[in-house]
Amino acid sequence: MTAQAQTGQWRHLYPHIVIFKEKAIDTTKTPLTPEMRGYFIRFERIKQLSHEHFLLNDMGVQNLGVRFDKKSELYEGLRDKIPDQDFTSILIDGKASVEFIAQEVNAHNANNYLYRVIQNNERELVGWTKPSQFKTTADGKYQYAWLGKFAYQPEQILRVEIYNTQKYNEQDAVTIDWRKVVAAKVSATVDYWSRGFPIADNGAVSRPFYPMEKYTALVKGKEVPIIPPALDFIKSISSKDLRLRFADSLQKMTFVIDNGQRIYNYKVSLKRNATGLKDSINLGESNSSFELYKEFWKTPGKYQITFTPKIHRHGGEPIYLLRNLATSISFTVLPPADRRYVVSVTWLVIIVASVLLIAALVIVYYRSRQKHILLQQAQSKEIINLQLGSVRAQLNPHFIFNALAGIQNLVNKNEMEKANKYLVRFARITRNVLDEGNKELTSIQHETDLLKDYLEMEQMRFGFAFSINTNAAAVDQQVEIPAMLLQPFVENAVKHGISAMKDAGMIRVDVVKNDNTLLLTVWDNGNGFEAAATTGMGIKLCEKRIQLLNSIYKNTTILLHKGRENNGTLITIELKNWL
């Protein structure tokens, strides 16, 4: 069973309409199948429990629910993944007690379920047992299993697990963590290849960045280093002044978060101030260990790697980086040891003269050929850019003309309040379009903001519903895409797809990542393309523009697909190898 979540506004305006398998169902008119009836009952039960302050959305398979008796800050923890399942964890900043329920379980099916409660991954507060206590929702319509209430304890972790004994893959779990967010305690080692260890781990060996003991031996009463000079690359003076001399045998640094394995990640960033290199880069996230390969620090200079706790507000609210709990490790990379070779003066002169002569001949030939190639490429690219600019110049007035027609329509109907609101949004969209000027690329965030303004503007005329889904966790919203690439297709969906459907119309815009490919889709539940829609100026200009963009971006390909899917019209734009 698949279902699309309904927004609060949609539920309020149309309580009798439910989205089932991506289709709007009027429960007062459509004959209901047993599958539909079961889904609607479950949907209403979850909605009622949500009104009673139980958290259920995105809780695994939506069986387990939790409720807190005190106001506390809630943060989303990392997903606990096992094959085919994805369980939820919640980080609590407060002293609230927690109450657990199983909303799918009642007195009639309880014999099919077992649950348990584990404290701190050490002991079972409740061993595997059948639910035996049941409660009813405040409206008296729905019964659910009550699994118990557990009080706050400092540094406590509770995990509740439940499964169906008749269908094992129907299982759910949730972890509640009262532990405070803490700074990472990080230890570091340097990994290198050594022929002295040819078997174990293919010769990979680790050494502490700051050894706590001396690698020496007493020989005739004197301390003698036991590390060969070639492997004597650790030059740290103290734990606060970490140094190493770069060598070919070095492979990576390994940073272990000794107090890790928490339900949140640490953002890892690297600040570099080296020879010809000064920047700060984001390296990803970890809550256990992180490997920093030598490609990031092979240039002599000063470096600083930082681990910053990263938590998410519950319900998809902003991400918080707790910079006051950041842990930084600074280290210095020294130049490689000198290597000196003795060459006679005669041979040195011969080698230098030969190299210079060959280099001169290669440079003359290369420059002549490159000049010819660059001239051809410049002429070709200039022509394409002129054509692309011409298409953009036609596309913007086309959009503006259609929007003005919408305003005129509202004025003619004497709907002056809607016309004023429409005009305000149109002014903001026009300003954004004009501010972009001749910029060919814009960020995903800017593009979707423009689409949202446009759809809200047209929503005032036609009353349809829409959603824009960008999956910010998987897709970087600052990635640039061709400006106004989706807008003509969204405009087409409004004009030719759902304008006549009024409140029953739906439009969905999705931006998803598939490996290195970016997929942009526009779906509406209209009747599909008509001849006027497929031959209109906006669509023609978009197809011409995509053709020109493919001529400029040789390493990527932009593909346009038009068709029917899920009882509606689907436009898909593939930006291959774009990420």
UniProtKB/TrEMBL annotation:
<dbReference type="Pfam" id="PF06580">
    <property type="entry name" value="His_kinase"/>
</dbReference>
<dbReference type="InterPro" id="IPR050640">
    <property type="entry name" value="Bact_2-comp_sensor_kinase"/>
</dbReference>
<dbReference type="InterPro" id="IPR003594">
    <property type="entry name" value="HATPase_dom"/>
</dbReference>
<protein>
    <recommendedName>
        <fullName>Histidine kinase/HSP90-like ATPase domain-containing protein</fullName>
    </recommendedName>
</protein>
<dbReference type="Pfam" id="PF02518">
    <property type="entry name" value="HATPase_c"/>
</dbReference>
<dbReference type="InterPro" id="IPR010559">
    <property type="entry name" value="Sig_transdc_His_kin_internal"/>
</dbReference>
<dbReference type="InterPro" id="IPR036890">
    <property type="entry name" value="HATPase_C_sf"/>
</dbReference>
<keyword id="KW-0812">Transmembrane</keyword>
<feature type="transmembrane region" description="Helical">
    <location>
        <begin position="341"/>
        <end position="366"/>
    </location>
</feature>
<keyword id="KW-1133">Transmembrane helix</keyword>
<feature type="domain" description="Histidine kinase/HSP90-like ATPase">
    <location>
        <begin position="481"/>
        <end position="579"/>
    </location>
</feature>
<keyword id="KW-0472">Membrane</keyword>
